[in-house]
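It would be a great kindness if you could assist me with a short task in structural biology. A protein sequence and the C-alpha cells that stand for its backbone fold form the material at issue. I should value your view on which stretches of the chain appear to form regular backbone elements. The record follows directly beneath this note.
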Amino acid sequence: MSQPTVELDFAADGVASVALNRPDKLNIYNLDMRDELLAALTAVRDVPTSRAMILRANGPHFSAGADLSEFGTAESVFEARRIRWDRDPWGPLWDLPVPTVAALHGFAVGSGMEMAMLCDIRIAAPDTRVGLPETKLGMLPAAGGTQSLTRVIGPDAAMPIVATARTLDADEALRRGIVHRVVDDVETEALTIARRLAAFDHGAVRSARRALHAAGDLSLADGLAVERTLARSILER
C-alpha cells in the first residue's frame, strides 16, 4: 500500500498539522498530492475544533515545486494546467477560516514557495531557499505566485524575483519580507506560534483574517465597511 503524499493530524489544542510527504522526491507537487492536499484543507476547514494550521513537510526539503514529468502526460502544457486548476487547492488554502503558519526548510521553490506565500505566517530554517523558477522554464508561476508575492512585498519588489527566476536564501527572504522569521528549530517555532493563535478567541481571529484579506481586495472605503461589519458582529455575539 502506497504512503499518503499528505499527512493530516488534529491535536487536542486546536492545531491542525498538514505535512507534505514525498521526501524521497523533494516533496515535488504531483496530482496525487494536489488531491490529498485539497482533502486535507477541506477537513481543516470543516472540523469545528480547528483553530490554527501548520503547513510543513517531511524530509530535508519543504517542496521543490511541481512534478514537471506530469506535464508530458497531457496533450499540451495548457491542458496540464487546466487539469490542475480543475481541482485547485490554492483558493481553499487562502480562504481557510483559521490562521496558517508555514514551516519552511531546504528548497521551497515553485509551487513550494507559492503554497507558503498563501499562508499567514512563514517561518524559515537557515537552510531555506525560496524562488519562482518558472520563467526560465518558459512558464508562469501560476499557482498563485504572481498574486501572493505581489500582495506581500509589492509589484516593484516582486517583478525582479519573478522575471529573473532568482533563488533567495533565508536571510535575503527575511530582509525582503518574504518570510517573517529565521530560526534553527523551525517546526518548534511554528508550533509555538500556532498554539498561541489557537488559544485566542476563534471568532476574533477569524474576523481579523477576513478583514486583512479584504484590505488587499477592496478599496479603502469598502475595506473599512467590511471591518466595521466584522467588528459589530463580534460585539453582538
